[in-house]
């Protein structure tokens, strides 16, 4: 599993962040954020270039934490609190998101 960090930032509270290098040594970052009434998961290349993102509204029992499981570069899952999870499979052409 990639390393996690709990941080805060001005455009939403960061609940979890994980970094992973591709085969050429370039970094990718997955970030799970809590925004006003909703959650957002983002994939970024080289810490600044957006690859894809997924956003959904918070349930009546909002999460205050998230866990990222990221074994392979193109496949990860984010679990918010003890409830909602978001799975993403992606490659250089597209990302497929599934909320569970």
What labels would you give this structure?
four-stranded antiparallel sheet, 100 residues, disordered N terminus, mainly beta, 8 strands
Can you walk me through this structure?
- This protein has 100 residues and is an all-beta fold.
- It has one domain (13-99).
- It has strands spanning 13-21, 27-35, 38-45, 49-57, 66-72, 75-80, 85-90, 95-99.
- It is globular.
- It starts with 12 loop residues before the first strand and ends with a strand.
Give a short summary of the structure.
The protein has no helices and eight strands.
Morphology call: globular
Number of domains: 1
Q: Largest sheet, if any?
A: 4 strands, antiparallel
The unreliable regions are 1-10
Cα(first) to Cα(last) distance is 20 Å
Radius of gyration: 13 Å
Elements, N to C (H/E): EEEEEEEE
Q: What's the pLDDT, averaged over the residues?
A: 87
Spatial sequence of strands, sheet with the most strands: 1-2-3-4
Strand content: over 45%
